[in-house]
């Protein structure tokens, strides 16, 4: 009897990317001939757009010989990158230490711990970033540094951007993304601009007084070094209430269950659609809503 190898099945890493692009059916209907399309990144295995750079950063560091399985990795995160890195570290054989603000939802903390990561809580994202670098200097591990690592936007240049271009058959006119680490908007904008310089890249930051998970207005000294202002054509401020209202509308009216920053991206896209004609607007829906349930944000509104 001949021993023949069985089928080569994919690993969990092979399921990252190639996420759906769907159209809105009821929200924002108008007669201007616009289409608002949503890239559903919550369909990634760890539930967010950050699965892409998490895998990219670890694989590239391995290829350079900077890390090898068994090493300890350290990263500051507000949530999604931490969950994605915890998953990637688990499947690739690394110890993961994540440092995050203590106001992060319990779902995020539990998800990271489920993948085996160790958590350290701090008072702010800036403090978390400083502590990660201090621990690296003390020899406690290696910081991947999503804020300054070119392998972060590279994941979107090689994946998110080409997927959007292919899924829209090259008709995309506007790309809308919340800005946190800025990896998504940097990598995707670079690819789309190479295909068509006329594609308008729209970045979102929180309005004064707004606290939106995943969207930041960084102090200048903490601005991610991967961010290049010239790659963003238009920066819009989004209010927390506007983002939250749109997030709830997406679940109740469209059946799309997502987080607050995604609500902000869609709200901005609908706002743009009121001023455009025959545009194809693609917004990043970066994660799923289930990791925000304990915050009460989906509780019935009075």
Automatic annotation (TrEMBL):
Name of the gene this protein is made from: cysM
Family stated for the protein in its record: Belongs to the cysteine synthase/cystathionine beta-synthase family.
Pathway: Amino-acid biosynthesis; L-cysteine biosynthesis; L-cysteine from L-serine: step 2/2
Cofactor: pyridoxal 5'-phosphate
Entry's Gene Ontology molecular function annotations: cysteine synthase activity
Modified residues (N6-(pyridoxal phosphate)lysine): 50
Keywords from the UniProt entry: Amino-acid biosynthesis, Cysteine biosynthesis, Pyridoxal phosphate, Transferase
Keyword Transferase carried by entry: yes
Reactions listed under catalytic activity: O-acetyl-L-serine + hydrogen sulfide = L-cysteine + acetate
PANTHER family assigned to the protein according to its UniProt record, in alphabetical order: CYSTATHIONINE BETA-SYNTHASE
Lineage: superkingdom: Bacteria
EC category: transferase
Name of protein: Cysteine synthase
Residues noted as binding pyridoxal 5'-phosphate in the record, renumbered to the chain: 80, 180-184, 261
GO BP annotation list: cysteine biosynthetic process from serine
Span of domain Tryptophan synthase beta chain-like PALP: 13-287
Species for this entry: Parathalassolituus penaei
InterPro entries recorded: Cys_synth, Cys_Synth/Cystath_Beta-Synth, CysM, P-phosphate_BS, TrpB-like_PALP, TrpB-like_PALP_sf
EC number(s) reported in the record: 2.5.1.47
């Amino acid at each position: 009897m001949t021993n023949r190898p069985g089928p080569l099945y994919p690993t969990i890493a092979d399921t990252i990317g190639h996420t759906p692009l769907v159209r809105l059916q009821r929200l924002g209907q108008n007669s201007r001939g616009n289409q608002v399309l949503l890239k559903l990144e919550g369909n990634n295995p760890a539930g967010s757009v950050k699965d892409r750079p998490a895998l990219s950063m670890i694989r590239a560091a391995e290829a350079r010989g900077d890390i090898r399985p068994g090493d300890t990795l350290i990263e500051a995160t507000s949530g999604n990158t931490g969950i994605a890195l915890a998953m990637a570290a688990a499947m690739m054989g690394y110890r993961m230490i994540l440092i995050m603000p203590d106001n992060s939802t319990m779902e995020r903390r539990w998800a990271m711990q489920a993948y085996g990561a160790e958590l350290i809580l701090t008072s702010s994202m800036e403090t978390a970033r400083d502590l990660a670098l201090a621990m690296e200097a003390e020899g406690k591990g290696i910081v991947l540094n999503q804020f300054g690592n070119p392998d972060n936007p590279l994941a979107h240049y090689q994946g998110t951007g080409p997927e959007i271009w292919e899924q829209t058959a090259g008709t995309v006119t506007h790309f809308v993304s919340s800005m946190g680490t800025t990896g998504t908007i940097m990598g995707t904008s670079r690819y789309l601009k190479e295909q068509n310089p006329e594609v308008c890249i729209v970045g979102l930051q929180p309005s004064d007084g707004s606290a939106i998970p995943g969207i930041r207005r960084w102090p200048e000294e903490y601005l991610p070094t991967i961010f290049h202002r010239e790659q963003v054509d238009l920066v819009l401020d989004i209010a927390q209430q506007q983002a939250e209202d749109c997030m709830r509308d997406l679940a109740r009216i469209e059946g799309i269950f997502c987080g607050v920053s995604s609500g902000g991206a869609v709200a901005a896209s609908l706002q743009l659609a009121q001023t455009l004609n025959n545009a194809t607007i693609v917004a990043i829906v970066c994660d799923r809503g289930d990791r925000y349930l304990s915050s009460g944000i989906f509780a019935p509104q009075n």
